[in-house]
Design a protein that fits this description.
This protein is α+β, with helices and mostly antiparallel strands and 100 residues long. The protein is built from 2 helices and 6 strands, in the order ββαββββα.
Amino acid sequence: MSMKFVERIEQVLPCLVDPWKLRIIAHLNSPPDLKELAQTLDARYSESLGVVLVRLGKREVNFFASGKVTIREVNDIEEGKKLVNSILAMVAQKQLLKEQ
């Protein structure tokens, strides 16, 4: 299983909910397995829309089948990237533990 991470940032916009926060559109280095992601994180998954919705407090991260990720309510790009990368690292770690 290859480690997934944020490869590039496509767009940075003001958040619709809080104009002092950012909404970021990013792309992963490879598309995620949404079903696996949803199960591991106990997150909401819509197979028809091809999206997994992860809520962490006020922040929201949507993972799409294409590898696109949207991040809402973060202070800066770095925080957004760290948030997504830490979610992906946690999923990878849980998967490894399950395989042992």
